[in-house]
Amino acid sequence: MKRKTGIKTIFLPLLIAVIVAVSGFCFSVDLAEAKKKKTKSKVTKWQSMLERNGIDRALWEKYLPKVSRGEYKKVKKALKKMGIANSGSLGASMRIGLFSLDPDAESSDRKVELKTVSGSYTLKDINGTPITTISSTGSTAIRIGKDKIFEVRLGDLGSFEDYGKKIVAEPSGSDGVIKIDNCKNDKYDTDGNGNRFAIGCYGSYDEFRGKIELSLDDNETPWVINELPLEQYTWGTGEIGDLDYEYYKLFSIIYRTYGYYNLQHKKKTHKDHNFDLSDTSSDQIYKGYKIESNYPNMKKATEDTRGKIVTYKGEAALTPYCSWSDGHTRDYPGDDFSYIKGRKDKYGKHPSKSAKKLEDSGNHMYGLIANGARKMVKKGKNYGDVINYYYTGVKIEGIY
Question: Do the domain assignments include residue 275?
Fold first, then answer.
């Protein structure tokens, strides 16, 4: 007897086409080519969802308008059940603000110096037009001019030339890594840790996957931005030490969820910025590529939990966390966060500090308590146990 799949016959060719063509639910899509195709059908929610998940329009356009949003969900569920949905995607693109530049500073203090760690990279202007390609042994410098135009110096001895309001350094391949050679700037070391302008480039953590962009935000402030997929962002996130592997898996889900949530709900503090999150504890600490080399289990744990996030009623949850509690977590303010409820916390209670001292040291006590999570893991709890202890009524689901 053949087992029923629950998918209408009209949609089976699409399911087969997706499996055969991509062996995964998410993959890169040539949007320019897709836009060439014409259709009289009105854009529907399920159609937009397919496009957001990277399914090539050519695979499903011929089924318009016969495929409903419900059928889309069935296909996604079927792919996930078959173990295909989590196999390919690195997730949506994240834009992380590393640090800003001061156009009024001295020339040497308003520039960044870039080198390749692996592969080569191409410099592009605001229109995406290549300026030059920097080889694996080459370097370049980019600075912000007094008139807020970015200037590029090609080679160590060349002069700076104007190249417009935006410059992007794009690696030649998906594994390309770029180093910001002058990330640490003692002159602007405002917190004693070598952090430039107290934001970005934590000490020697100066290497980054993905693109490095220099552009102006809505306030005409020049920013250095790292753009990379959500999974690669998660590889380089966190104040991670040599910890239990289950703890790495736990925090890979927490970091990914926080990133994904903020892609959907842009923070008010970043509404004028041209990035999604900063790399500081005001969002969550991101240190880039060297987390992978210093703590390889972080990347491995992220790969083992690929695409998994914390959800509440089918939507991405906000996942705040801090180091310690005073023996009780707090209700998160607002009507939309009933899953972040205050509760007695026997695991994460600090042994000596008062609530006031904890709050003064940045422990807001909302959501997950890191030291409590670590204690739970050591007692044999898995990441699901910990997440459901600190957040109420949530699930862990794959988004790709």
Answer: no
